[in-house]
């Protein structure tokens, strides 16, 4: 269960970083 939490947290961070990268392109 803990491992899954860490994976989700890492995915969330990656998604946030990707979002920050893509945001300037969209706007």
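^ structure tokens above, recovered residues below v
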């Amino acid at each position: 269960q803990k491992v899954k939490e860490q994976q989700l947290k890492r995915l969330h961070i990656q998604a946030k970083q990707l979002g920050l990268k893509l945001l300037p392109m969209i706007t």
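The radius of gyration is 12 Å.
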